[in-house]
Design a protein that fits this description.
It is a single chain. The chain has ten helices and 14 strands. Strands 1, 2, 8, 9, 10 and 11 form a six-stranded antiparallel sheet that branches. It folds into two domains: about 5-225, Hsp33 domain; about 230-280, CBS domain Like (Alpha-Beta Complex). It has helices spanning about 25-35, 40-60, 105-110, 135-145, 180-190, 195-200, 200-210, 230-240, 240-250, 270-280; strands at about 5-10, 15-25, 65-70, 75-85, 85-95, 110-120, 125-130, 150-160, 165-170, 215, 220, 225, 255-260, 265-270. The chain is an alpha+beta fold and about 290 residues long.
Length: about 290
């Protein structure tokens, strides 16, 4: 039986080629239940999540990779994150109808997507890439092909029950078999969405590459996570400023904030609000006499 919620790496021993596989199941179900999405919008959210899991594993960083798109199209917002602790989260907001034939730029109302790499102890690195093609596999492959990156291919499939994906990447160095990359990609292109979703990785690799020597590494379990907390929500209120928060408090009776990633609800009454801003005043540095 296929293992659920896992990411797994593999290498071609005789060629400078590596691969990565991902399957999202229960973690995806949690995101689907909160998204309110269906159809192509849901598919794009799943594709983006799978792609970030595949990328964070190949980067071998301690941190996270975030893909973000904001625009004026029917799918005006998409944000997904995968980290080195094998945790994922993602949201998308649909505000209009996505019709057949729309490409990514039309769906999002934007010409670009942003990838942010956050490494612990370092400044975030951000890359901006064009939204090319009809899906995120197209867009990411175009990005890798045109930005002096390693040759990389993606195979992604998504429905309401599962997201699965596979990545192949050509590593630096001279290959003894110069046709190996093209041959491996051509074989991988025979992989169907149904096979990618349902079959065990070992059987997929054997069916595609049984004439190759492949090293399969241990799988890593994946889970949904959210980093929100009452303390972080209070810090967000500080950025709004006390006058604006008090105005909401006067109009609504309390300040309510719902996390878009996990739907956790935080409520602040008048006493809570005063405590948030009082705590902030106490930690402000004072003047030191010399």
């Amino acid at each position: 039986m296929k293992s659920l919620d896992q990411s797994q790496r593999f290498l071609f021993d005789r060629h400078p080629i590596r691969g990565q596989y991902v399957s999202l199941d229960e973690s995806w179900a949690r995101i689907v239940s909160q998204s309110g999405l269906e159809g192509r919008a849901l598919t794009l959210l799943g594709e983006a999540l799978a792609a970030m899991v595949l990328l964070v594993d190949t980067l071998k960083i301690k941190g996270s990779v975030i893909l973000q798109v904001r625009g004026s199209g029917p799918l005006g917002l998409l944000v997904v994150e995968a980290n080195s602790e094998n945790q994922i989260r993602g949201i998308a907001r649909q505000v209009g109808e996505i019709t057949d034939g729309m490409d990514l730029a039309q769906i999002f109302g934007s010409e670009y997507f942003v990838i942010t790499i956050k490494t612990d102890g370092a400044e975030p690195h951000q890359g901006i890439a064009p939204l090319q093609g009809a899906n995120f596999a197209d867009a990411l492959e175009h990005y890798f092909a045109t930005s002096d990156q390693l040759a990389t291919r993606f195979w992604l499939t998504c429905d309401k029950d599962n997201v699965s994906g596979m990545l192949l990447q050509k590593l630096p160095g001279k290959a003894a078999d110069e046709d190996a990359w093209n041959r491996v990609v051509m074989l991988a292109d025979t992989l169907s969405a149904q096979e990618l979703k349902l079959a065990e990785l070992e059987s997929v690799l054997y069916r595609l590459f049984h004439q190759e020597e492949i090293r399969l590494f241990d799988s890593n379990p994946l889970e949904f996570y959210c980093s929100c907390s009452r303390e972080r929500t209070g810090a967000m209120l500080l950025t709004l400023g006390k006058p604006e928060v008090l105005e909401v408090l006067e109009q609504e009776g309390d300040v309510s904030v719902t996390c878009e990633f996990c739907n956790q609800h935080y409520r602040f009454d008048s006493i809570d609000v005063e405590q948030v801003f009082l705590s902030s005043d106490k930690i402000k540095p004072g003047v030191t006499a010399h």
